[in-house]
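Let's study today's protein:

:::
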Amino acid sequence: MKFLIVAGDQSGNLHAARLMHELFALDPSLSFYGIGGEEMITAGLWEWANVREVSVVGFWEVARHYGFFRRLLREIEKSLIEERPDAFIAVDYPGFNMRLAAKAKKLGIPVLYYIAPQLWAWGEGRSNKLKQSIDLLLTVFPFETEYFSKFSIQAKFSGHPLLDDANLEKTDIDIENKRLIALLPGSRIQEVLHNLPIMLNACSQFAKRHSNFIFSISIAASVSREIYDKVIYSTISQSDAANFVYADDSRLLMKSARAGLIKAGTSTLEACLCRLPFAMMYRTSAISFYFGKFVAKTKFLAMPNIIAKKEVVREFIQNDATPEKLAEELERIVFDEKERKQQIIEFASIRNQLGGKGSARRAAQEMLHWLQIHSGIKNA
């Protein structure tokens, strides 16, 4: 059996790699080709394109790369005709994967979607299109199965894949006396350019009052070190820059820090699972923000808030994300013990809702079971 599998960012790459391992464990004869990163390549992917090439975010940023994405989509569509994979496995990345799913479906190729598109947040109008384009949807949040059932979409809750990550286990690291602040500006170049300068200025203001803190920036493999250097030295003074260090392991950083400033996205859920008190921020281009306001359907952006259906962590979005406001909030989550304790209690409750370990294994079993029933493909 041959599967086309597509992940479009580093987070999806990690989840897809774990899914591939579980599929291989169930059927060692499988082969995979498509779009992924180093972890997927190590797991056995024949790489069509790398996530570094396709990992862009925002309406304006995607529009700037429209020609590239159109050519890539046509190339992969051609491969569907020539290679005739036994299934297309889409991993998150809805803007690209939903288009590709529609093409695969027209060709009679089964479409299995792992990590459901967050249409409940930004695109309910596309739910009927999703229904017409996929055969099986694996969800990672418990409320998603009920949401998609409204559109007669076959959805199964497999649990959240982050709970399969041993690096997100509860830790005995004593952070209460630590003087480390975690900064997670995002894993894409555009995110770093928009969010890191605000974080740097906020921390510089905080450091003027609390000089014994160190600020650690989580750096993504998809963004060159030179980008981070350029942002730092064009934003703050060289003397202030001495307070900032880089961290290659974001999970260890989140478990070791006392508090954090974190860009909206998967990292907010990771911080929750690491029990890291934090504030969420998000800035993007003015054009992307303008269009985003019209499609956003949720009250919150931070995943812990969305899951809890209330404000667990404070959110600072676009013009509200100022160095002054972030510095003030950093004071609160660093020194207010009542606030810190309340966030950690809420984080524990959220973890309990995410299905426990084994998401990738359950998803792999559901996929092969569906193929066995509907496509005559037998499990190993």
In short: Residues 253 and 333 are 17 Å apart (CA to CA). The chain has a mean pLDDT of 88. The chain has 19 helices and 13 strands. The first helix runs from residue 10 to 26.
